[in-house]
Amino acid sequence: xxxxxxxxxxxxxxxETATYLSTKFAVTSNGFLPKEAPLRELPPYYASxxxxxxRLPQLLRTGALREKVRELEVLSxxxxxxxxxxxxxxxxxxxxxxxxxxxxxxxxxxxxxxxxVPFLQVSERLELPPVLTYAASNLWNFTCSSDDFTDVDTVxxxxxxxxxxxxxxxxxxxxxxxxxxxxAIPAMTQAxxxxxxxxxxxxxxxxxxxxxxxASIDKxxxxxxxxxxxxxxxxxxxxxxxxxxxxxNMEAAGLPRGVLYPExxxxxGKWTGSWHHWRGGSNGQxxxxxxxxxxxxxxxxxxxxSRASPPPExxxxxAPRSYHDEVRDYMPGPHRRFLVHxxxxxxxxxxxxxxxxxxxxxxxxxxxxxxxxxxxxALGGLRNKHIQVVTRYIILPARRAAREMLETENEGExxxxxxxxxxxxxxxxxxxxxxxxxLRGTGGTTLIPFLKQSRDETFEAGYLR
Length: 465
What we know:
- It contains 18 helices and four strands.
- The protein is mainly alpha-helical.
- The strands form two sheets. A two-stranded antiparallel ribbon has the order 1-2.
- The longest helix has 48 residues.
- The N terminus is likely disordered.
- This is Indoleamine 2-3-dioxygenase.
């Protein structure tokens, strides 16, 4: 670890560090959320977007969404003047794109130019892919009746697909979790700086910072456990989750080629563009969890429950990027750069491991090591809670849907009316009902194997010997 790598924070107070993080990396007092609630409306030039987005649940229920979107004109992004306006435009276009793709009996493979053209421009400006990322559905998509974004009872989604409290609650649990975790970021940034200094180190102070991080992670976990209060698993699985799917690894759901984004006119005066395969929005795109991993030195391999294989002898090949590395491309640019900046410093695990293996460690150093282990156990416990939520909201509803589909097939009835992530999860490769569905997340990963591996890798970080 470089002792000078975090020089902007040397000798600074926690408040001064927080100010620097906000200016340099858009990391505010609410963590990766904005300091104030996001903008609710765009300038009058974009009234046609606002008109559709306000009626989105109704248009989806009546099947009129696609027709209304096709009536839109291609609007310029030149009237977007502030960061808040660019973010609001990204949210609107992300929801409209997902609604258009998944809002019919069959998914739409081609986006209308009225969505794709400005969406590509807005996405480039914000350094994000043109898909409904976690930033669009969560970070920049809420209102709050108080100044405390950690109070999930006072935050509400501005935009949903279904208009249900279930969907708003699902998104807002994550918003409250982000705000809760955000309070630990400046202190942990300083703790990492202190760990990179040459001795003497204040191990007692490092241990206190780690205990604060553990307490913060525990609070985040308690918020996650409240998901069941206002979000019904079947409503989430059948009505909400299909709209969150991306176009990557979605062949079975009806997008074998991904989605075509028209971008410009060709010589014949027709719209032309490129096919894209994007991952759908998921909590894996949360910079909060990635920050915890970076600070604690949790290392992740490639997706699923398999490890990256070394290249054949005599061949030089870059190791495949893990899913955790890849989804950083789905985070706002400043947040992504913050994670890179912090990760370049090393981690607290390096120091804890060195001390744990030393025969001369004193009591304060051992207290620091114990605090580090408790923090990794807390983060592993949070991932365990996530697995429990996924089981309740995806695994069990998928099994029920598969059983119902088998029953209708046995009775000679038509099993599928719509084609989306939920219905495709209940069938096998031949299109027949599956006894045990193989489930993928909205981000395209094999679901439970990936989550279990992430949890196990977190606990492994605490095994210092």
